[in-house]
Every structure is written in C-alpha cells, then in structure tokens.
Specification:
SRP/SRP_N; nine-stranded mixed sheet; binds guanosine-5'-triphosphate; alpha/beta; cell division; GTP binding; two-stranded antiparallel ribbon; Four Helix Bundle (Hemerythrin (Met), subunit A); 16 helices
Length: 457
C-alpha cells in the first residue's frame, strides 16, 4: 500500500512505473551521489533475445535506476502511511510538470518548447526538489545544508562567455583596421580578408562588406558600425537554420541517431540532450552504439545514470547495428518516448565507419521505415574548416538532418558555424558551450550573431 501511495505522489502526469523512477527523483543530490558511489556494476544474468540481424554478445539492459533505486526507497523513512481511504488532497500533491498533464497524445513537440516549459516549472518542479508526501520524512541528520548556489548565468551571458575568444579576436582586428579612416576600397578588401580568415566563409564576408559599403562608403566609419552591420548580416545567414528539434511522440520511440567524427562530443551531447528530455518528463533510453571505444560505453552508462535514462549496451567490438536493433526493440517494449543511439566516431578506417553507419540506418529502417527520425551530427567548433568537410561526408552516408556545434566555449573559431550554415543550410539545433550537463543551449541566430560581433544583448 505504501508503494502504491508513493507511486501516486511521484507520478507527474505521464504514468511512470515505480521501478522506472530514477533514484535522483526523490533524493537530495548528496544522497544520490553517495548511492551512486556505492553502486556495484549491475551484472546481467539472462540474455536479451539476440537480434536476428547479427548474433551479438548478450546485450546488457539495465535501467539507470538499477540497484540504486531499491537503496533509494530504503533511504526514505516511511512513518505511519496515510490510511488507505484518505487520498492526498490536491494541494498536497506536487504540481504536474507543465505540459505533462494527462495529454498523452503529444504531437510534434519542439524540444525547445519542452525545455522552456520545464525551465518555467523548475522553481516549483518536484522532479529536481521533490516535496516528500505527507507522512514521510527523512532523518534530520541526513538533510545536508542547502549549498549556496551562484545565480545561473542567463542564456546570453553563457553564450557571450563561450564565444568570448571568437568575438574579442574578431572585434579587436576590426577596431585595429578602422582607425577613423574614411571607408575606401582598400579598407573593404582588408575587412573581407579578415572576415574570411575568421571562418565566416566568402559568401558571408562579401555580404558584410557589401552592406557596409552601401551604408558608409566614403564616410567615417567606426568599429562599432562594422560590428553592428556584421551582426545584422550574420543573423540573416543564421536565421533560416535556427530551428527547434522536433520530436514526433505519436510514434514511440522517436529515434535520434548521433553521428560525428571522434572527439566531437557525441557522447557528451547525448548526455546533455537526455538531461533536457528526461527533465521534461519524457522517458529516454540511451544505446551505446560506439562499440569501438571501450570508454564510450562506460561514459554513456554514466550519463544514463546521471539523467535517469534507461541504458542498453553490449560488449566491446560487438556489431553496432545489432545493438541498434535490440535497442529499438527494447525501447518499443518499454514504451520509451525517445531512443538516442550513440555511434563510433572512429574505426579502423573511414570506409568501415561509413559502412557501419549505413548498416545501422538500414537495420532501423527495417523496424520503422521512418527511423532514425532524426540524425544529429556533432561538429567540434575548434576544428574550424575541417568541420565543413565532415558535414559533407556524414550527410551523404547517414542522411544528417541537423547539427549540434560543440566546444564553442573558449574557441576563437566560432565563426565556422556561419560558414557551415551558409554552405550546407542544415538546421542547427543546439550549441555546446562547456562540458557540463547544462552546457547545451538551443541555437538562437540573433543572440549568436550579436555574441560573435561582441555586441551586448
Ligand atoms: N569545452 C567543451 N568540451 C566539450 C564540449 N562537448 C564535449 N566536450 C569534451 O570533448 C571531449 C570528447 O567528448 P566525447 O563526448 O567523448 O566525444 P565523442 O564524439 O563521443 O568521442 P568518441 O567517443 O571518441 O567518438 C570530452 O572531453 C568532452 O568533455 C563542449 O561543448 N565544450
């Protein structure tokens, strides 16, 4: 009866079986960390049915809740539960997560909307700071002193900080170029060269110098004039590609395949995405499709535990397409809303890597002709021009549907995103501005353009 009671209190709109609950949902961060540190790797006895595609090693399937979930329930000290017939009154129940009301027919939902809703609900959101239901308490000595948390930087502050090196280098060079000179042909050519060297691409460089010439040719011009016009022109290039990542939750699971060269931040970005999705009340499963790099499997499992997502992995060297097949089957059986599949960024050679990606797509197609529903490519901003070529390669092989530009914090090459947008016209859904779980921001064209041009918001 007590378990049933807990289930009623912690269900936020979407029915979520009690064993699915991530331990973190009703623990303070310190308690969750303590439990995570003690948890032994979960050993799996029975094998999942082997994929008919290729025999693979026993696929390890475990919920991120795993053993910790049981320990977690031990941590909450139940005192006399409410008498069975007394339903907790409305005001006692934690508020539903916005958008997680009974509506189970969620149609096409832009992820940024889900995120905005969960952000809106964060101060009272029970998921991060659950209010223990009446009749329960935790031992007083276990309740850690609330640590003083510095106010979180706004989106724009984090972006400005992330792009600081790009913008300071660019605006510094522009200022040096425009030392109170009247705008002439030579200055325009110098500016064009400078913009091309900043990875903005020839097309965008010419747009900027053309707009500047139209407005200021033969007149005095300052660095601020150039920054203002540069921001406006970059924004025009980026606006068409700044789109929300749409999830079609009418067909579960929505399969997101993440591809990209090794080291571009695939696994990290998957963790960040999983945090946003599960924080919005969606059921997420992560599949360790990078069976080439041992650390990648373990890394993804840690992200699954940290974000309360389900995890499915297999042994090193196993067939990635077989893992993808099993993951899809498991996600469908467990009614996961979203399945995110990690892939290898490196194999013996590029041809092998491309062949593996093609096979994964083929196998998923067999299970759902529309799957993978989204193919995200991660691009490392610090690699500059190389990122342009990478889009070409992966787009042809895996049918990339959108981009996530990572490592924009601390790099002086953030301009490459403009060059890629102008050339490939692929949606840019998010940008990575750090290694932390929150360091993934929805891509906003205007903010990005102003940040690169060094303009205050
Ligand atoms: N500064 C910074 N580091 C990042 C960002 N995203 C990822 N990283 C770091 O980049 C390194 C590589 O990230 P991974 O997620 O392992 O990259 P991957 O593409 O999965 O690599 P492979 O598994 O080798 O294919 C890690 O040290 C990450 O912490 C970011 O936005 N900013």
């Amino acid at each position: 009866m007590a378990l049933g009671f807990i289930k009623k209190v912690f269900t936020f709109g979407k029915e979520k079986p009690i064993e699915q609950q991530a331990p973190e949902e009703h623990l303070t961060p310190a308690q969750a960390a303590a439990i995570e540190a003690e948890v032994e790797p979960h050993s799996r006895e029975e094998d999942l049915p082997v994929s008919p595609v290729d025999p693979v090693a026993p696929v390890e399937m475990e919920t991120a809740g795993g053993p910790a979930a049981d320990d977690a329930r031990d941590v909450v000290e139940p005192v006399e539960p409410e008498p069975a017939d007394e339903e907790p009154s409305e005001e006692e129940l934690p508020p539903l997560l916005p958008g997680a009301e009974e509506n189970t027919e969620i149609g096409i939902v832009p992820l940024s909307l889900l995120e905005a809703e969960s952000e809106a609900g964060t101060e009272s959101s029970p998921v991060s700071e659950p209010v223990l239901p009446k009749g329960f308490t935790t031992r007083v000595d276990e309740v850690p002193e609330p640590e003083v948390v510095a106010p979180r930087m706004t989106w724009y502050q984090r972006l400005r900080a992330g792009l600081a090196r790009t913008s300071s280098q660019l605006t510094g060079q522009i200022t040096a170029l425009f030392t109170k000179r009247k705008l002439d042909e030579e200055t325009l050519e110098d500016l064009e060269d400078l913009l091309i060297q900043s990875d903005l691409g020839v097309e965008t460089a010419m747009r900027i110098t053309g707009a500047l010439s139209a407005e200021r040719y033969g007149k005095d011009v300052t660095g601020e004039d150039v920054s203002r016009i540069m921001a406006a022109e970059i924004s025009k290039v980026l606006s068409p590609v700044a789109k929300p990542l749409q999830l079609d939750l009418n067909h579960k699971p929505h399969v997101i395949l993440v591809v990209g060269v090794n080291g571009t931040g695939k696994t990290t970005t998957i963790g960040k995405l999983a945090a946003k999705l599960s924080g919005s009340g969606l059921k997420v499963m992560l599949a360790a499709g990078d069976t080439f790099r041992a650390a990648a499997i373990e890394q993804l499992k840690i992200w699954a535990d940290r974000t309360g997502s389900e995890f499915i992995g297999t042994r090193l060297g196993a067939d990635a397409a077989g893992l993808a097949y099993d993951a899809f089957e498991q996600a469908r059986a467990k009614k996961s809303d979203v399945l995110i599949i990690d892939t290898a960024g490196r194999l013996q050679n590029k041809a092998e890597l491309m062949a593996e990606l093609e096979k994964i797509v083929r196998v998923l197609n067999k299970l759902d002709p529309d799957a993978p529903h989204t193919v995200l490519q991660t691009l490392d901003a610090t690699t500059g021009q190389n990122a342009l070529q990478q889009v070409e390669i992966f787009r042809n092989v895996a049918g990339v549907s959108g981009l996530i530009m990572t490592k924009l914090d601390g790099t002086a090459r953030g301009g490459i995103l403009v060059g890629i947008a102008a050339k490939h016209k692929l949606p840019v859904y998010f940008i990575g501005v750090g290694e932390g779980v929150d360091d993934l921001e929805p891509f906003e064209a205007d903010d990005f353009a102003k940040a690169i041009a060094g303009l205050t918001h």
